[in-house]
Amino acid sequence: MESYSNTRATGARRIVLFTSEFPPGPGGIGTHALELANNLAMSGYTINVLCEQHYADSEQIKDFNSKISFPIVSLTFSRRNPIIKLSRRVHKLIELVRSCKADVVIASGSTSLWSTTLASFFLNFKMVAIAHGGELTFTSLVSRVLTRFSFKSAHVVICVSEFTRSHLPPSIAQKKINVINNGANHNLFRQLENKPSLKRKYGFEDKLVLLTVGSVTERKGQDTVIKALAKCKTEFPTMIYVMAGRSDDFEAFKELARKSGVSDAVFFRGSVANTEIVELYNLADVYILNSRHSSHGDFEGFGISVIEAALCGLPSIVSKNSGLEEAIEEGITGLGVMPNNSEETAKAIGSLFKNEQLRTSLAENAKQRAIMHFTWEKVTRQYIEVLESL
To answer: How many CB atoms lie within 10 A of CB 357?
Structure first.
């Protein structure tokens, strides 16, 4: 593990990280929050996390939280009036800030942003607002006004990509906006040396493997990859597509695979543990994340999984017109394609599988770039610079 001797906090910051998502359930905002909290704690900050922990049962949450080195307060509100839920979040945040004498609150996720802004009327602390992307796409007027006011009220706004920054309201003062890309945990996500045996373990021996990690949803665009796979199967009959991630709509994707004639080449792994995800990255040949803007405007702010894949030695195909473009270097670590375009996606897939030398070169470049710029230790240094400037 990289040394923290040159990144340790010089101030006496006590931080509450208030996030709308936190493990053990899946989600990029939750992964970001966990890694940021871990690395700030290792850098000498006092961290308390206030969070919602979705898609996990009470025993999973209890077991996960017991292994974390900093205090976690998990919100367990039932479905109720949104105004009541918001007021209770504000109350919980005020209690926590007072009890741990925090002087900084990092807010990540829309409801956390709103709650932190309201709490700032009652307490004196510095607010750092994280902009991932989804917070900037609300159709509700009330939500848009609350979000805009929250970002304007923050002392610092951190965007996870330049693409996300481009979607901030123009009324936000540019001087307080910072762009800090997401990172990935290089101690967990690393290249293994047993690709053939891993393929045998999962029953994918002698297969060319495409992989996507993330919820199987409209926004992640797995349907475009399924259609592209159908276009590639004649030329690459051993090609398969593996998806790891939860979904409320697996049947629709399975039906698409059936109609496209590739049911036997599409594998849904569902929600899996990190150990399996690492193995899937390592048995795959190409990573693909062809996200689109969702029907309500949400977009991919950066793409942590692309960096995880790179650390495991994979080149990536990603969609343009999103933060994913910043997770690769075009033609050097990966390829960009237009979202919703299965023809262009199929051509990109074919170009990598026809040219093993290109695929290998992109993979090695991707790994080196990720190690140089996108480990959480490197990313945390940028957060520390921001925190020390408050």
So the answer is: 7
